[in-house]
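Retro notes (design track)

What went well: tokenization of the new backbones is finally stable.
What didn't: we kept losing track of which sequence belonged to which structure.
Fix going forward: every design gets posted as structure first, then sequence, in one message. First example under the new rule, 1106 residues:
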């Protein structure tokens, strides 16, 4: 085929378009496909053009040779195929007194590049000006030659993907207002996602010879961008200048969410009503929470609201008529609004390096005859070069080997605000009513920012001789070059510098709210205020892959005209010292400090007195909650400059600045890299735990104080207590009146449990200690290294109050005993807690000899301990609900010997009876309702899961039951079992490879799926092993590669699968091989720590299956 001007091999485009419409719904789909030109030659194919040859998604194949020659340009490119979909729908739904409108938009667009193919025995492409190959393949069975008078460009094509989602919802009328209330008004939400990306990783060009060599000649630049060049023999690239760089996958994602509610809200209020409403809300939060511990803590909150509600009823029933509450149960009505918004932005750049793989020799020459800025340069960035034989890089000017950056940047912000004003009306046990007006408001805002960089280093892996020659400078910045023997001649300066991966994150969130209640008649004034601030800060900078020159048994011979500088880099050799020499004018070296640190902090305070009308504060005294805590950590290491033992010649001694004696010669241990220590999700949950533990602590303190008030009210009616009070007044010479006697009796009953009392201070200390340990394994922390911290917290908070100090230690001791050996659900665990606490507080008193006050103290502290244990170890809402009450019930009915009434036993949650109980009816004696029944009536039955039933079984017993379970040192938790088995199998595989690559007595066998295969010929004693695998299927070899990875492989293209492990190991499975071994599959392993620690220090290895 010949033309005086152009030869155009174009495509025929086909389009499919479909559009459908319905009631408030439409959908559009469109697809574009391309059919390229096909030329098939029985023998040879020749294409000659006086000007240009343009091949778009064309296929040119021949049984023998393919030859194309153009007077100007040859353009071998892609044709774009695409798929588009648009969907929009609006739905309207009317219900009882409500109407809902939803609007949904979905839009997707994606392009794929259909490349061209030139294939034959020997393939030659020659252009007078430029030769451009984009997203296409040029394959030859023999030799392949690419020639251009100007530039040769072998590039990846660019594909596009975009996704848009919009979901809008608006509801008007009557709907849930949160808790057990409802709202008459409107609520709306809007969720929008816009995700757009361009990729090159899936549309790389491929230049390959399956049986010969690949040669590329360019009068100006030879550019290989995000593409592959493979030859079974040699690869030769000769040009004025050479650029080899990666392709880029770019992504931008924006997400925004808005919500707004306004209208008239009706809800339960008052002491009991408000608690039930709050308990319902906490239970819903527990069900919606994905983290088990946070769900459990919310469950504890919900259960304790039930306790507080019952306490409020009991306390009110014991008061004199004139003191009884006017708002035990009530209704609040308020007009208000609440709105919130959040948005997140992501920018991401992922690089895919070019790959050059030669079975024999790899030669890259930049002869630099031009006068351009890059003339005579070789620049290689973030790419991988490999040769089975020798590698030569020769530049008339500079050689620059650099890493390429994978980057990610995230930003986010959020805000919320709201307020309400309303009226609350309540009624008490005597039918008295109270009315108050209230107002509340809230505001919150936050922001976060993160950015990270992970370097993809350039690697040159040479089986034999590596030669690098530059007339001017050579710089390795994020590059690792290796060869059995390394020879370098640098005209001016040699620079070696390692690059640090980095990851930084900052976040701040603050919220403030407050409310006030003003009585109109028969009610009490009240108010509340809360403020919280969360801050997170993390930085990470560390070298992962150390830049260096890595020589084998042949050693290194490096000559530098002027200066050699090593910044955290190495010149390494496994040869004897006499084979290693560096000859340079001057030598400089420095270390790189690796550092990671983070700090998280939560500061929160809540103050409440009385109530806000919408939900009365349960306590009968002023209440408050402080949540302060956080976490921090740091790690450091040093990446040192080092040179293996050998001869270092410094020619310009007058200008030598550093003492060579200070240079490290320990190349094996030079890279003191560190791993990231900050886990954002884990630390966010830790701060939430601190908040919830503080809120639970506030509830616990209120329960203790209210119980003291109950004891005080009972004392006012107890003849013995009144007699003791009268005697105390007489002894003090104070005026004796009926009111004075009752007040003293009340104070005596309240003393141990009221504000500042021993039990309350002990509770505060225990809660504060647990807040400080939030986020980790609390039971291990309490029992282990954190014990001094806990003791110090308790000491500071209880000061010189020995009784409170002992109580706090008793509570935490019971928590440890429970979490280490029992479930919070088990009654026996609760009894054990009570018995433990009783022994700690009253070691010399038998159980049946405890006084009523001592029993009450043990009972309350058991409730606190069991509730805390349920929160920190629970794995479900039901578990957390049962924790506090099971401990209390078991303590009273078993540890303290109280009889168990039929209602209590039936409900499984005994709540004290009228003779000294937390929960009882107003009549005092029989007929008390268990908290289990209250919770069940509100939330419904929640059957708890079986808690860690295998924790005390041996591994053999677990095996009989179908596998290793949780709870023993030799086992894994159910959620970790698959991952743990994968890690175990992965470690076994690498141990097997360590024996195969052992320098002194290497193993010759590999076992896969019970079949033992042996090594054959074709490998080398350094990096490559070839196994006879004729009896193995492709699937068995794939499974073996996944076992090495310990995780699924990602498909790059047909026949190539890869993954990167957390320790930096890269594993690739490929069915393409440039060697003459006849391998059908090859597993490449790069940068594995276990393999690099072998005596021969293997950074890159190949396992081939023939």
């Amino acid at each position: 085929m010949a033309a005086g001007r152009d030869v155009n091999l174009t495509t025929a485009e086909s389009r499919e378009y479909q559009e459908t419409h319905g009631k408030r719904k439409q959908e559009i789909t469109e697809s574009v496909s391309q059919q390229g030109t096909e030329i098939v030659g029985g023998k040879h194919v020749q294409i000659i053009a006086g000007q240009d040859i343009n091949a778009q998604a064309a296929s040119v194949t021949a049984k023998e040779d393919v030859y194309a020659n153009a007077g100007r340009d040859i353009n071998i490119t892609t044709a774009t195929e695409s798929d588009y979909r648009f969907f929009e729908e609006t739905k309207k739904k009317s219900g009882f007194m409500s109407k809902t409108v939803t609007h949904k938009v979905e839009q997707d667009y994606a392009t794929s590049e259909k490349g061209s193919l030139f294939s034959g025995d020997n393939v030659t492409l020659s252009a007078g000006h430029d030769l451009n190959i984009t997203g296409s393949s040029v394959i030859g069975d023999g030799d392949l030659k690419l020639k251009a008078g100007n530039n040769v460009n072998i590039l990846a094509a660019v594909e596009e993907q975009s996704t848009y989602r919009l979901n809008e919802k608006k509801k008007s009328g009557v709907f849930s207002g949160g808790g057990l209330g409802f709202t008459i008004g409107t609520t709306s939400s809007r969720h929008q996602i816009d995700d757009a990306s361009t990729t090159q990783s899936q549309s790389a060009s491929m230049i390959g010879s399956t049986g010969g060599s690949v040669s590329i000649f360019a009068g100006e630049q030879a550019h290989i961008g995000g593409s592959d060049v493979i030859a079974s023999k040699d690869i030769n690239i000769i040009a004025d200048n050479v650029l080899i760089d990666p392709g880029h996958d770019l992504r931008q994602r924006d997400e925004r969410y808005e919500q707004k509610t306004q209208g008239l809200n009706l809800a339960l209020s008052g002491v009991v009503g408000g608690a039930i409403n709050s308990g319902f809300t906490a239970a819903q939060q527990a069900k919606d929470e994905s983290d088990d511990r946070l769900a459990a803590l919310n469950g504890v909150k919900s259960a304790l609201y039930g306790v507080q509600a019952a306490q409020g009823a009991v306390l009110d029933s014991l008061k004199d008529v004139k003191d009884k509450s006017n708002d035990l149960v009530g209704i609040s009505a308020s007009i208000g609004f609440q709105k919130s918004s959040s948005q997140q932005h992501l920018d991401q750049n992922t690089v895919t390096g070019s790959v050059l793989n030669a079975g024999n020799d790899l030669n890259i020459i930049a002869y630099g005859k031009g006068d351009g800025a890059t003339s005579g340069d070789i620049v290689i960035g973030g790419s991988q070069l490999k040769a089975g034989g020798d590698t030569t890089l020769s530049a008339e000017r500079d050689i620059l080997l650099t890493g390429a950056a994978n980057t990610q940047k995230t930003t986010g912000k959020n805000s919320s605000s709201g307020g309400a004003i309303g009226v609350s009306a309540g009624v008490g046990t005597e039918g008295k009513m109270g009315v108050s007006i209230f107002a509340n408001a809230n505001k919150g805002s936050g922001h976060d920012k993160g950015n990270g960089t992970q370097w993809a280093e350039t690697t040159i892996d040479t089986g034999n001789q590596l030669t690098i020659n530059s007339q001017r400078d050579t710089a390795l910045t994020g590059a690792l070059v290796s060869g059995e023997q390394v020879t370098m001649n640098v005209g001016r300066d040699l620079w070696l510098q390692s690059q640090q991966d980095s990851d930084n994150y900052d976040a701040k969130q603050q919220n403030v709210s407050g409310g006030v209640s003003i009585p109109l008649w028969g009610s009490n004034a009240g108010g509340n205020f809360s403020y919280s601030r969360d801050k997170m800060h993390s930085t990470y900078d560390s070298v992962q892959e150390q830049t260096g020159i890595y020589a084998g048994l042949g050693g290194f011979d490096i000559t530098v005209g002027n200066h050699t500088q090593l910044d955290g880099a190495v010149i390494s050799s496994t040869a004897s010292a006499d084979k290693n020499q560096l000859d340079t004018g001057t030598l400089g070296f420095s270390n790189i400090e690796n550092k990671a640190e983070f700090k998280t902090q939560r500061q929160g305070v809540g103050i409440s007195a009385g109530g806000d009308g919408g939900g009365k504060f349960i306590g009968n005294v002023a209440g408050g909650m402080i949540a302060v805590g956080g976490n921090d950590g740091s790690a450091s290491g040093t990446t040192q400059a080092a040179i293996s033992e050998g001869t270092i010649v410094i020619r310009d001694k007058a200008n030598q600045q550093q003492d060579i004696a200070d240079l490290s010669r320990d190349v094996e241990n030079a890279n003191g890299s560190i791993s990231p220590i900050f886990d954002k999700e884990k630390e966010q949950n830790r701060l939430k735990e601190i908040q919830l533990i503080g809120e639970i602590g506030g509830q616990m303190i209120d329960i203790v104080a209210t119980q003291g008030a109950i004891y005080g009210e009972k004392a006012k009616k107890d003849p013995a207590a009144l007699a003791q009070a009268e005697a105390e007044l007489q002894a003090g010479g104070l005026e004796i009146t009926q009111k004075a006697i009752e007040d003293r009796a009340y104070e005596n009953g309240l003393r141990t449990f009221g504000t500042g009392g021993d039990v309350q201070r002990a509770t505060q200390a225990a809660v504060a200690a647990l807040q400080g340990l939030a986020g980790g394994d609390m039971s291990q922390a309490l029992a282990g290294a954190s014990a001094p911290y806990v003791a110090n917290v308790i000491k500071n908070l209880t000061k010189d109050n020995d009784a409170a100090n002992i109580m706090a230690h008793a509570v935490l001791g019971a928590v440890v005993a429970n979490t280490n050996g029992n479930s919070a659900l088990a009654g026996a665990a609760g009894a054990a807690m009570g018995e433990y606490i009783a022994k700690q507080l009253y070691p010399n008193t038998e159980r049946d000899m405890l006084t009523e006050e001592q029993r009450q103290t043990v009972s309350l502290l058991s409730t606190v301990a069991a509730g805390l244990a349920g929160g920190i170890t629970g794995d479900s809402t039901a578990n957390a609900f049962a924790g506090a009450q099971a401990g209390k019930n078991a303590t009273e009915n078993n540890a303290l010997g109280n009889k168990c009434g039929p209602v209590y036993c039936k409900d499984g949650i005994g709540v004290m009876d009228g003779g000294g109980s937390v929960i009882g009816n107003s009549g005092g004696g029989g007929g008390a309702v268990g908290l289990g029944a209250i919770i069940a009536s509100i939330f419904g039955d929640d059957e708890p899961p079986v808690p860690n039933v295998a924790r005390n079984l041996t591994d053999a017993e677990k095996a009989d039951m179908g596998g290793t379970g949780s709870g023993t040192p030799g086992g894994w938790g159910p959620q970790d079992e698959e991952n743990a088995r994968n890690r175990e199998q992965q470690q076994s595989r690498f141990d097997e490879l360590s024996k195969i690559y052992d320098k002194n007595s290497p193993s010759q066998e590999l076992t896969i799926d019970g079949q033992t295969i042996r090594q054959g010929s074709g490998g080398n004693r350094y990096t490559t092993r070839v196994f006879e695998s004729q009896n193995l299927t492709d699937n068995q070899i794939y499974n073996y590669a996944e076992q090495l990875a310990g995780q699924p492989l990602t498909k790059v293209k047909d026949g190539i699968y890869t993954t990167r492990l957390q320790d930096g190991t890269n594993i690739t499975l490929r069915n393409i091989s440039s060697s003459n071994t006849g391998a059908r599959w090859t597993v490449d392993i790069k940068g594995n720590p276990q393999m690099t620690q072998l005596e021969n220090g293997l950074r890159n290895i190949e396992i081939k299956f023939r």
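Added context from the reviewer: Residues 2-253+349-407 form one domain.
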